[in-house]
Design a protein that fits this description.
It is a single chain. The chain is an all-alpha fold and about 80 residues long. The protein has one domain. It contains three helices and no strands.
Length: about 80
């Protein structure tokens, strides 16, 4: 049930963000015809360019896969069905 609800919320959120021009040009996740490989290559290129320029570079990769499981599903479902 949670995966179905997650998919519905994702579809509504992505639709809203795309319709209002709120997705960055480099956003790859949840978008058709945008490859994650391209995003990874861009990040690597940016880090290498920073290091070549003598700057420091840091990359933070938080794991947010379990965040959805902490949401009260009944409240979320009520709000999704109201919109």
């Amino acid at each position: 049930m949670s995966k179905l609800l997650e998919r519905l919320v994702t579809q509504q959120l992505v639709k809203y963000l795309m319709e209002n021009g709120l997705l960055p040009d480099r956003q790859s996740a949840y978008r058709a015809h945008y490859l994650m490989e391209t995003a990874v290559l861009q990040v690597v290129a940016d880090v290498l360019q920073a290091l070549d320029s003598g700057n420091l570079a840091a990359l933070v990769l938080p794991d947010l896969s379990a965040v959805f499981d902490t949401v009260d599903h009944s409240t979320l479902l009520q709000r999704v069905l109201r919109s």
